[in-house]
Hints:
By secondary structure, the protein is an alpha+beta fold.
Amino acid sequence: MKKFKEIFSGLTIAYGQYQKGDRGTNGKLKGKAFIVRKNVTDKLWEDHLAGNPPALGIIPIREDNNCKWGCIDVDVYNLKHHSLVQTIRKLKLPLIVCRSKSGGAHIFLFTTEFIPASLMQNTLKKISKTLGYEGCEIFPKQTEILVERGDTGNFLNLPYFNGTKGLRYAFNDNGSAGTLEEFYKLYDLLACGRQEVEKIEIEEKKIEEAFPQGPPCLNQLAKEGFGEGARNNALFNIAVYYKQAKPDSWEDELVKANQTHMEPPLSNGEVQQLIKSVNRKGYDKYRCKDAPINVVCQSRLCRTKRFGVGYGEEQMPLLGNLIKYTSTPPQWFLDVGESRIELKTEQLYSSPLFALACLDQANLVVPVPKSKDWKELFLKPLMNNLQEVEPLKSLDPINEITSLLQDWTTNRQSARTLDDIFNKLPYTDDDREYTYFRMEDFYNFCKRNHWEMDKVKTGNLIKRLEDIFVEEERVRVKNQQPRLIKIKAMKKIEANVSKTKYQQEDF
Length: 507
């Protein structure tokens, strides 16, 4: 356990867990990912290796924005892991391939010392492109986390859950499943220092794509081969691509593609029928939800391609790494291109409000898709990879409203008599047992202190303060009967002033 813990060192003040759900049509396990704001204890490491659920997820980036490991997350579930290992060894890259929980691959780069997260991320991005997995998720997902704002970054599920008995193992060079001890040997052999990482040379060779600027799924399938059972749907999507990329000769190109990529090729009659289908108005759209496309779909990356999904529309920057802070109301953080955007729920749900948030926070001008397209093509894929985070207690609305009440009723000017309630002041009785105030006066104070919750929700929040809230009642004041909030009088918090006595000196 000690060595495993050392290898996967990361953020220590929070960790990730995953509640398993059903397996989707693309082979990926569905479930709920969430971050727990507690210290990573030795018991969590021990339970992970022992197979005691839930499995442990570690956030690789630390508070100082350094990390000791990174990972390329390849979500391809018909992946030939042995071939991937052989390719990596031919390129002489110091990487270890592990089977992910869903059957894909986690390609790790380990270092013997902590290095900047930016260096790790940039190195892995270059490597992923060389390996043919451009657009895959890279961990650490952030190069900087704002711990003081409650930011934690994203976690990755670790290998060797249930030790050697589990399915999340590293692959030896011969393609066999490696024991934990064999994984340690691979680590000792391949872990790099910072200088070695900086010296990793990656040949920037132009990758020849079968379908330039086309959907990543088609280019990946062209490398791996189109299965016999899904040739018709695959060729349909190729037809849609050529109709966009080469409108004057797309039918001829489709015939060639059938002979080049289909094993065995479809009959001429089947190809002609496909051409008729794609020529029908409204039918020349990619079919992304059917096999074999759904298995290798990279929808976020696809929308950045010239002839990808959304052809003819203004291109949306790459969207990813959605995190929800489960406060009241919730806070959302989303990576938009190279920028990190903070969103309210209504801004995430509405494409026009989302575009305004991007412009306001990052000076980004993004397209505004139709409401249906925004939800289906952008929002739903983001929600599939959502990670939830418990908010800091200091940011909990209950704690915030309590602090505001205490400040307003004890640290500010108070009413001398109940009549002064109309001067927009709180009144505390002579016995200092109860405090009375008008809701609108307190709410205006809250707004001046950057409180964003509306008046009704603020009132409901006060009613939830069981140890403080007493009742809401009408009280006769100056021949009027204003509706007043009655709470238990709160004590003023005195500043902790140092009582150290200093020796008097003569000057």
